[in-house]
Structure formats: structure tokens, C-alpha cells
């Protein structure tokens, strides 16, 4: 039997909810103040761990990186720095909070109840949708909110593509998609771009991008609804793929059809404040209201950082700065009320962060039939035909932030299974023909095989326990 202290968790000094630049910076400062913060990353509610920078390519305006840095890599570095100084991570969602009592109480998707003296809300914002009449029909079958995640999929190669929006994100995605599409149409509601001058110049100078000014998307259509031919259209029993858009001229009201294979949204974000609605004050657009120029909310010990409370700037650097402010304010508040229980960090100077080891592409020389995780078409062919165990095949692309989040989760599942299942990663840019044959329409996509039979498939980031349950279910079935 466990002791009483194990049955009753201690009250946390500080919990940070959210894992973007604001959350990781807040955790870093709190950890260096010896507060041993707990950071709850979020998982599916409000987006993936790491926040919006996980779905960007090159971040060129974050100080300290003169040549730019990939968004997922920047978030990896922030995470590693926070962990190095003593931050503890909990990879799940907070589903409910009780802020009207002491200690504050948080309820997670894992069924845990956490008590804490102070909270920093860094839950960020989620990508908006257009809510078109047929949007649900074509979601993940031509419509996406993440060009960085899905642009490299085979269905978009050498096809006409469209991006909706006029800000930095829309411009970045339009430029990115020119690597794959035959032409990119940027659909802008107004008569000018809202993006930074550098990004706007890049778009307007790109011969592969056509800007449609004063246009809005009214609806989306399949090939048989538009007269647009589609030689690759799925069979009658399969869901149709996007073939065209209806655009409306906002000046004249006239409508037109635009034949495209993909539509990508970059139309802003909505703050993730549903968790505290009714407990904390929100402004007219749903952002958390804080004291002017400060991170304090209307409840003592509850602080806000990042895009969840920033309706104007919404930059990675401003989010990180507000995370610093929130942590310093929380530290002072805890000290003033004599609530903090500092921890001693041993050693005083933590070990340097080790560089991650990348998985080599398998070939005839290095293929290992017993390895838990391998990469590439050679490993897939061998294991598909020879592996007697459940086989996870994950389709990724190099710039896909959600892939970046999911792969460690899958590797951990395989490690916990102790060799009873194996995994293969397929880079859809390196092996597009395999992705096309598998019907992959976006990344990450995961297929679970047993004895060369597809048993289950997933699209996007899922909880680790979902993959574990599916594999264990196959392991318990008699051969």
C-alpha cells in the first residue's frame, strides 16, 4: 500500500496551462525561480503542444536567429530549455477549472485533479474556419487549416491551389505552396494585403501566385457539381475531393468559379478562453481581460500570457515576453502571500541539453528486423511482408508541426510495448508514390497493420492511449 502523501498530491506552487512561446517562457522563468512549475501542454483542445509556431515554416523575425529557424525547431528549443531548469510536463488537456476557491483546482483529460496556488493561462488561439455550406464534406479532402502540414500531400502536387487570407500567415502559406502546386491563388477580401511589407513584397513578386482582390469564398464543390473534369476522382463509394470554389466579388456581387484542388485557410484565430468563460472577464472578441500593461486577471493568483490575452500584436516574441512577465508577477505574488514552497535544484547548474538523434533512412545495409522504429520505403517493404507483429506506419512531412508532436508519442508507445509492435516513418516528400498509393491526404496519418492487413487508421494528433489500446487489442486476438 502507498503512503498518505502519495494518495494526496501536494499543492503545486504554479501551473502553466499551454505550451507555446508564452507557456514555455513562463515555465522557464518560474523554474529558474525554484518554483518547480508544472506545465500542462494541452494536446487536442485548442491546438497541438507548441502552439501556432508548430504550423509555420521559417520564423525569420525571432531575435537571435539571423538566418531564421523552423517554427517546430524553435519550440523544441524553448521546451528543452524549460525542462533543463526543472519544469515538469503533463501531456494532456485541462478540461475544467475552479478558480473561485483556494487552492485553485484543475481537472485534466487524464482524470487527475490538480490543486495549485497560482495559474498562468497561456492557452493561445485556434485557427478560424469559414463555415462554408459544404465545408465539412471536404475537410481533409481538399480543405485544410494548415498548408505547412498538408501541402506536400500527393493530391496537391502540380495542382491549382488556393489560400484565403491577407495577413502574414496567408502570405507565408501561399509562398510555401508554390513548391508543390502548379499555381497558387491568394484570395483576399480587401484591396490590399495586411501582411508585413517584406511578406507582401515576396508574394507580389512571385510569378506562381495570383492574387484575387476583393473576393470571398462562398462555397466549395466536387468535380461532378462544377463540370470540372477530375481524372483522379475517387470511386463512387468514396468521398469526393475538392475540385472548385465559388468566389464572390465584394464590390460588384458577381460570382465566378475557380478550379482548384486544395483550399487552405489563413483567416485569423479565436482565443482559447472557453475553459474560463464565466469565471474570468473576457472582452467583446473573447480575449482575456488583464490589468492594463500587466498579466494579472480579475482573480488573485491567476495570470494570462500570450495570444489568449493579446488581441493586437499576436507575435511569437510578444507571447514570449508576456510569459516572462506572467512568471515574474506570479513569483512575486506567491512570495508576498507566503504561498510558495521553493525547491532545491540538484545539481545547481543543470546538464547541457543533448542534440536529438535523427532516424537514418533504412537500406539493405542498416535495416534491422527487430528495431522498434525505422524510416523509409525499404523498411516499410520489408516489415510489411515479414513482420509478424502489429506495424505502425506514420506518414509525415519535414515541416509538419503535428508530426513533430506525434512521433515521440508513437515511439513511446512502442517502447512501452517492449518490442511487441514496430513502427516505420514515411516522409511523403521523399516517397510521394507510397503516400499516394496509401491514400494519404494529409499529415500526420497513421496506419496500423497486422499480417499485411490494414486494421485501423488515424489522421492528425491523437492521445497516446488511443494508439496503445488499438495495438493491445490486436495483441489479445488469437492468431
Per-chain topology:
Layout: H1 4-7, E1 12-17, H2 21-32, E2 38-40, E3 58-59, E4 69-70, H3 71-84, E5 88-90, E6 94-98, E7 104-108, E8 113-121, E9 125-127, H4 135-138, E10 143-144, H5 147-150, E11 160-164, H6 168-177, E12 183-187, H7 197-204, E13 209-212, E14 215-222, E15 242-249, E16 255-259, E17 262-265, E18 269-271, E19 302-304, H8 316-336, E20 373-375, H9 377-386, E21 391-396, H10 401-416, E22 422-427, H11 432-437, E23 445-450, E24 453-459, H12 464-475
Parallel strand pairs: 1-2, 1-8, 2-5, 8-19, 10-17, 11-12, 11-17, 12-13, 20-22, 21-22
Antiparallel strand pairs: 3-4, 6-7, 7-8, 9-18, 14-15, 15-16, 21-23, 23-24
Helix pairs in contact: 2-3, 2-8, 6-7, 10-12
Rg, nearest Å: 24 Å
Overall structural class, as computed from helix and strand content, comes to alpha/beta
How would a crystallographer describe the biggest sheet? 7 strands, mixed
Shape: globular
Unreliable residue stretches: 1-7, 227-237
Fraction in beta strands: 15-25%
Give the termini distance in whole angstroms. Answer: 38 Å
Give me the CATH architecture of the largest domain, please.
3-Layer(bba) Sandwich
Q: What average pLDDT do the residues reach? A: 91
Q: What's the number of extended β-strand segments?
A: 24
User: Approximately how much helix is present in the residues?
Assistant: 25-40%
Domain count: the total is 3
CATH class category label of the largest domain: Alpha Beta
Amino acid at each position: 500500500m502507498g503512503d498518505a502523501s502519495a494518495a494526496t498530491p501536494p499543492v503545486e506552487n504554479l501551473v502553466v496551462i499551454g505550451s507555446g512561446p508564452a507557456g514555455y517562457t513562463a515555465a522557464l522563468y518560474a523554474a529558474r525561480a525554484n518554483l518547480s512549475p508544472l506545465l500542462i501542454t494541452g494536446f487536442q483542445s485548442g491546438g497541438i503542444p507548441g502552439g501556432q509556431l508548430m504550423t509555420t515554416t521559417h520564423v525569420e523575425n525571432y531575435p537571435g536567429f539571423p538566418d531564421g529557424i523552423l517554427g517546430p525547431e524553435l519550440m523544441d528549443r524553448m521546451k528543452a530549455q524549460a525542462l533543463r531548469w526543472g519544469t515538469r510536463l503533463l501531456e494532456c488537456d485541462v478540461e475544467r477549472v475552479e478558480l473561485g476557491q483556494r487552492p485553485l483546482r484543475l481537472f485534466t483529460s487524464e482524470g487527475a485533479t490538480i490543486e495549485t496556488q497560482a495559474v498562468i493561462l497561456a492557452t493561445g488561439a485556434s485557427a478560424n474556419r469559414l463555415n462554408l455550406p459544404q465545408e465539412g464534406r471536404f475537410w481533409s479532402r481538399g480543405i485544410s487549416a494548415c498548408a505547412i502540414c498538408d501541402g506536400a500531400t500527393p493530391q496537391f502536387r502540380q495542382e491549382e491551389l488556393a489560400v484565403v487570407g491577407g495577413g502574414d500567415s496567408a502570405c507565408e502559406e501561399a509562398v510555401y505552396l508554390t513548391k508543390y502546386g502548379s499555381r497558387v491563388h491568394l484570395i483576399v477580401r480587401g484591396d490590399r494585403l495586411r501582411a508585413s511589407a517584406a511578406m507582401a513584397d515576396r508574394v507580389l513578386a512571385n510569378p506562381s501566385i495570383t492574387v484575387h482582390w476583393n473576393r470571398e469564398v462562398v462555397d466549395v464543390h466536387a468535380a461532378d457539381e462544377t463540370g470540372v473534369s477530375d481524372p483522379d476522382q475517387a470511386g463512387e463509394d468514396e468521398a469526393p475531393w475538392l475540385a472548385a470554389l465559388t468566389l464572390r466579388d465584394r464590390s460588384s456581387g458577381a460570382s465566378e468559379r475557380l478550379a482548384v484542388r486544395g483550399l487552405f485557410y489563413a483567416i485569423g484565430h479565436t482565443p482559447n478562453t472557453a475553459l474560463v468563460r464565466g469565471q474570468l472577464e473576457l472582452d467583446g472578441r473573447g480575449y482575456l481581460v488583464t490589468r492594463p500593461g500587466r498579466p494579472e486577471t480579475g482573480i488573485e493568483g491567476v495570470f494570462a500570457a500570450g495570444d489568449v490575452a493579446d488581441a493586437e500584436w499576436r507575435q511569437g516574441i510578444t507571447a514570449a515576453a508576456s510569459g516572462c512577465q506572467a512568471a515574474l508577477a506570479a513569483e512575486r505574488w506567491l512570495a508576498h502571500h507566503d504561498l510558495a514552497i521553493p525547491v532545491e535544484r540538484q545539481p545547481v547548474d543543470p546538464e547541457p541539453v543533448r542534440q536529438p538523434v535523427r532516424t537514418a533512412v533504412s537500406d539493405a545495409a542498416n535495416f534491422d528486423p527487430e528495431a522498434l522504429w525505422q524510416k523509409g520505403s525499404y523498411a516499410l517493404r520489408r516489415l510489411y511482408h515479414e513482420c509478424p507483429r502489429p506495424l505502425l506506419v506514420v506518414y509525415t512531412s519535414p515541416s509538419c508541426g503535428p508530426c513533430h508532436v506525434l512521433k515521440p508519442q508513437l515511439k513511446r508507445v512502442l517502447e512501452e510495448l517492449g518490442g511487441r509492435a514496430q513502427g516505420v516513418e514515411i516522409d511523403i516528400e521523399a516517397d510521394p508514390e507510397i503516400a499516394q498509393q496509401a491514400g494519404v491526404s494529409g499529415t500526420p496519418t497513421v496506419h496500423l497493420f497486422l499480417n499485411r492487413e490494414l486494421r485501423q487508421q488515424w489522421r492528425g494528433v491523437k492521445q497516446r492511449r488511443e494508439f496503445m489500446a488499438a495495438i493491445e487489442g490486436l495483441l489479445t486476438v488469437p492468431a
